[in-house]
Amino acid sequence: MTRDRLSPGTLLEVLGPGQVAVVGVPLDENSSFLRGPALAPARIRAALHAGSMNLCTEDGVDLGARNDWHDLGDIETGSGEAALVEIERHMTKLLATGARVLSLGGDHSITHSIMRAVAAVHPRLTILHIDAHPDLYDEFEGSRRSHACPFARIMEERLAMRLVQVGIRAMNPHQRQQADRFGVEVVSMREYQPGKPFDLYGPVYVSLDLDALDPAFAPGVSHHEPGGFSVREVLQLLAGIEGTVVGADIVEYNPTRDHADMTAMVAVKFYKELVGYLLR
Ligand code: MN
Ligand code: MN
């Protein structure tokens, strides 16, 4: 199965309501510990097209037989502050067509830029943030753009009506304070009960940091935080969304830490399922 890869500039005319665009955002310079997630989009695509699995979602939608979703290739982000502006600009253009977008990170800093564009289209948004970490630092090691900070920026700018964080198991006192200040709904990994719904209605944006998973399932991340989700539990979280999934990202895949592409395949699994939800 091969699909055309087209640059984000060239396919705008075929995008429209009911269509899904997939874009890579190869930016990892806001990572605090290890680089590597910039390599992720290419490696996720390679795993998707390796021929080891078909393109059916678990709902039985054969993505291989449909022409209403498109991999647009990577955004050329550049670096520094300009990169975050560039991501927002590209995302705004894609969303203006009426299409929904799945972004492949990159480190988690990209989500702030993406949310600026998504919030402009969906003012009453709920974010389902699946992560080991709350990413609510006011600043981290001197940077307010760190991948440890995006949800502080998102809440300061009121880019979401609700932020629901699930899988958290690295909350410290500063971020607890930030969560209280912003009214974040935190479901820690310890409190998590499989199958219990989170009342995710209306437009829902899914931000999936792969370190939410237990490192046993997804070793290819920069920050191993044991005691996390199984792949099945995250799939069940996604299946439990009652509202409409209007956008999503998969971030923090670090191929330099992976074994036998197993985390790439986990990313591909969520890629397929999320495209399926975005097409609904
Ligand atoms: Mn994160
Ligand atoms: Mn994380």
Summarize the model shown:
The protein has 280 residues and is of the alpha/beta class. The protein has 7 helices and 8 strands, in the order E-H-E-H-E-H-E-H-E-H-E-E-H-E-H. The longest helix is centred in the C-terminal third of the chain and has 17 residues, at 262-278.
Bound molecules: manganese (II) ion
Count the domains.
Answer: 1
Structure class:
alpha/beta
CATH superfamily membership: Ureohydrolase domain
Number of strands: 8
CATH class: Alpha Beta
Q: Tell the overall outline.
A: globular
Helical content stands at 25-40%
Uncertain runs with pLDDT below 50, 5 residues or more? 1-6
Strand portion: 15-25%
Cα-atom radius of gyration:
17 Å
Number of DSSP helices? 7
The second-level CATH architecture is: 3-Layer(aba) Sandwich
Query: Roughly how many Å apart are the termini?
Result: 23 Å
Give the strand order of the largest sheet, numbering strands 1, 2, ... along the chain: 2-1-3-8-7-4-5-6
H/E element order? EHEHEHEHEHEEHEH
Can you summarize the main beta sheet?
8 strands, parallel
Overview of this protein structure:
The protein is α/β, with parallel strands linked by helices and 280 residues long. The chain has one domain: Arginase, Chain A (3-Layer(aba) Sandwich). It is built from seven helices and eight strands, in the order βαβαβαβαβαββαβα. An eight-stranded parallel β-sheet has the order 2-1-3-8-7-4-5-6, with helices on both faces. Strand 1, helix 1 and strand 2 form a beta-alpha-beta unit. One manganese (II) ion binds next to loops.
